[in-house]
Predict the structure.
Amino acid sequence: MTASRMLPCFAVALLLGCTEQEARLLYELGDPCRSAYKPCLDDDSALSCESNVWVERDCASVCAELGPAYGPAGCDRECVCELLDPSGCTPNEVTCVDESTVAVCDEAQQLQSTPCSDVCADAGLDEVGCLANEDGEQSCWCTSEDTPCEPSSMPTCVDDATIAVCEMGAWVFVECQMVCGGPAVCDPLQQPATCGC
């Protein structure tokens, strides 16, 4: 090899190695993981990065880790898991049964109902009800004076004579009688709730 050809080869060798063979992709079992991409080996298995090394995982075991409600449905870039009963609920899904009861989907795809009063009492808080947030996610809402709230939190009735308002990032309970300067009730049917004077 002439001196004029050695210099470019030397520069390339520092970066890639001076070889005519194509560098192989590091996607073989036992290779170090160098990508978050998990390629399929076939319809039933994929590579998985464990302890920074590629190992083979069958999709049935991958789906079993999600719980008994899921089963394998092939491999498309990674193992695909589907609910065994598509008509059932999705495990850990939360939904409001009514205005004061929440239901959580268990691993057997059955909804388990719990009164929001119990959920809030376990946290040492008072129940507001089962409501949806701005993203449509449903859950029990609880409140207690001086607990944190979002600036966008709407006033809500604590009881028929007290309204909870968010002030400077904390819930404050205010007697409607103080707001109105006389007999008053908290009207939860107004959105947001208000003290009816």
